[in-house]
Inverse folding.
């Protein structure tokens, strides 16, 4: 059975290419609020499949710039929507992947940085926008954005690190807020953010071991990974859990072959990957399935960076903080 | 997309969907452009509020529309009475029942409470009752638990006293109802250190004795679920336990726990022919704690690790790494 499972690269490329041609479907319009994220997910998956040229670079960059919100300086998911930290990171990731950050004018760049920084609160956390939702995800998105722009400063970084460390829990996981239950996605955002600013050393060896233990217990007998104890496996945790394990140098604490088999079982023969076998596919799970396979070294994929979820060839050009 | 079964689309089904979608798309896009247009014109009327309601019912993840809705409410605020704010809470409750995992709805509900014309402690206490009910329906909803902690903080700010003791009762009831409620075990690890730090435990020794009894009872009830085992891993290594009990009693209770885990493991072996992996994992921890306390014990860690490498091959490399640490 395992021997028969292969990564359907051409089908996935075709699936991603066709995503923007589904305008006859109601769901296409219902997901406008995720469009810019979707472009990042699709583009990154294509890069890992060595098919970056599938998207038209100029069209994509035009779309990104249409999502720029003059009034706030951030990026929205779709033209005329509102800027948010989540979508601002997607915009910056796409521009960086195309080596096109210079399409931002100096005043746009300045306003964008101001938008990110202005959402930091006194305890070091970040709100997603002015309406005050606070979440560890936004700490990651803010630090990742500023890192790609190579404009991190100790004034932003130090309080953010303190906040992240306060999200560490009894079980070696991280919550979305101090006191909140551990979840694999927040292990990634916490460890990823610490890695971005070169502060993984703030965790003790003992903590690293506990983190590794909790993460490797996410693998369930069918091979997939879950996000929390007692929950079903889901392909997106192939990314959240695996990248976290990679960041603490314990990637091999789970079984690669079983996970590979699980991810491949979630493929639709027509292209795309779903959360669980025989479910509806989407571009989010397609990326995270492929990124997981890349991290484990399967399928001759382009190497992915566990910190940024972008091709290593792109991220190695990012200047590392602290800057000299 | 999470948890949606893959559909096999025949040509006929696709044709039908296309016809149905055409109308829905037209309505949705009209409504969207109308709402965004009135937003751009700074139109803050009850009529525009209704448009956001319709749009958010169709798509509760449309954050720009949630933002517009709040702008409208801010502008209409002086004209909005208690009844209105209660209806706003009803609206988000109905949304949460349909979409309990949408962050934007939880966030808007919190904003509504902050802006409620009667933002008294009563409103927040009513909310605490609401979220208790919601957690009965979905005991692991992390949004619900997070929201609950925010509500409790707010009540504490109003009244000046915390409800940690009542919360511990709530958490215990939840665990007693379902021993695999990891969210409740998590909350237990948040509350107990705080109760100790705030000196809210009258007899600290007795509390710790009871906690040892509680976890022992839990593993005899269900030794397969990882919730209680992660809790034990944290509890026995916690400085506060040792300092409350003092060394001798702590060691006795720890060794009693170790004996009980061995009994469970032996029972499993006799019953199913297999040892219990979680028993072995925690026995390793207990041996390590004792070694670090300077006790001379007969170590079985290497045997346990060998057994785990066989029986829990997914995590083989962790056990190999623990073995290397030993030597």
């Amino acid at each position: 059975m395992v021997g028969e499972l292969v990564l359907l690269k051409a089908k996935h490329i075709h699936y991603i290419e066709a995503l923007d041609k589904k305008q006859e479907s109601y769901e296409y319009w219902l997901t406008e609020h995720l469009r810019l994220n979707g472009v990042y997910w699709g583009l990154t998956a294509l890069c890992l499949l060595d098919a970056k040229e599938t998207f038209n670079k100029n069209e994509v960059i035009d779309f990104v710039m249409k999502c720029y919100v003059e009034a706030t300086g951030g990026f929205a998911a779709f033209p005329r929507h509102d800027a948010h930290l989540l979508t601002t990171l997607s915009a910056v990731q796409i521009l960086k992947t195309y080596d096109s950050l210079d399409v931002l004018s100096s005043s746009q760049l300045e306003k964008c940085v101001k938008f990110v920084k202005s959402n930091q609160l006194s305890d070091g956390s970040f709100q997603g926008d002015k309406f005050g939702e606070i979440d560890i995800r936004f700490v990651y998105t803010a630090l990742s954005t500023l890192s790609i722009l190579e404009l991190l400063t100790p004034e932003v970084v130090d309080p953010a690190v303190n906040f992240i460390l306060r999200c560490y829990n009894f079980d070696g996981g991280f919550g979305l807020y101090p006191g909140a239950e551990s979840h694999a996605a927040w292990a990634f955002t916490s460890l990823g953010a610490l890695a971005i600013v070169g502060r993984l050393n703030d965790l003790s060896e003992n903590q690293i071991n506990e983190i590794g233990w909790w993460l490797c217990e996410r693998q369930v007998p069918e091979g997939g990974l879950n996000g929390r104890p007692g929950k079903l496996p889901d392909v997106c945790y192939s990314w959240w859990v695996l990248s976290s394990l990679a960041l603490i140098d314990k990637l091999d604490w789970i079984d690669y072959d079983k996970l590979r088999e699980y991810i491949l079982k979630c493929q639709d023969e027509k292209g795309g990957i779903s959360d669980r076998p025989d479910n509806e596919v989407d571009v989010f799970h397609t990326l995270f399935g492929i990124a997981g396979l890349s991290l484990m070294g399967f399928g001759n994929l382009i190497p992915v960076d566990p910190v940024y979820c972008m091709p290593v060839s792109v991220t190695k050009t990012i200047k590392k903080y602290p800057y000299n | 997309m999470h948890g949606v079964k893959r559909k096999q689309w025949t040509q006929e089904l696709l044709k039908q969907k296309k016809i149905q979608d055409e109308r829905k798309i037209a309505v949705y896009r009209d409504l969207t452009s109308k709402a965004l247009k009135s937003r751009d014109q700074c139109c803050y009327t009850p009529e525009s509020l209704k448009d956001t309601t319709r749009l958010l019912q169709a798509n509760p993840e449309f954050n720009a529309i949630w933002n517009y809705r709040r702008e409208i409410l801010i502008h209409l605020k002086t004209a909005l009475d208690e009844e209105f704010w209660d209806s706003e809470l009803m609206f988000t409750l109905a949304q949460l029942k349909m979409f309990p995992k949408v962050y934007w709805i939880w966030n808007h509900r919190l904003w509504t409470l902050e802006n409620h014309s009667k933002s008294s402690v009563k409103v927040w206490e009513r909310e605490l009752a609401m979220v208790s009910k919601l957690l009965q329906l979905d005991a692991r909803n992390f949004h619900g638990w997070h929201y609950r902690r925010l509500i409790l903080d707010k009540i504490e700010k109003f009244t000046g006293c915390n409800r940690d003791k009542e919360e511990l009762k709530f958490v215990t009831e939840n665990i007693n109802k379902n021993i695999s409620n990891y969210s409740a075990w998590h909350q237990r690890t948040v509350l107990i250190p705080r109760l100790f730090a705030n000196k809210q435990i009258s007899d600290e020794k007795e509390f710790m004795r009871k906690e040892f009894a509680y976890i022992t009872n839990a593993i005899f009830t269900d030794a397969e679920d990882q919730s209680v085992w992660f809790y034990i891993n944290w509890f026995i290594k916690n400085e506060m336990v040792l300092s409350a009990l003092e060394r001798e009693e702590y060691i006795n209770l720890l060794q009693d726990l170790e004996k009980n885990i061995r009994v469970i493991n032996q029972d499993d072996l006799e019953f199913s022919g297999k040892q219990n992996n979680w028993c072995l994992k925690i026995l390793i921890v207990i041996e390590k704690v004792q070694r670090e306390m300077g006790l001379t014990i007969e170590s079985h860690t290497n045997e346990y690790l060998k057994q785990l490498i066989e029986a829990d091959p997914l995590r083989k490399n962790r056990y190999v790494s623990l073995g290397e640490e030993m030597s």
In short: The first helix of chain A runs from residue 9 to 18. Residues 2-315 of chain A form a domain with the Glycosyltransferase fold (CATH 1.50.10.20).
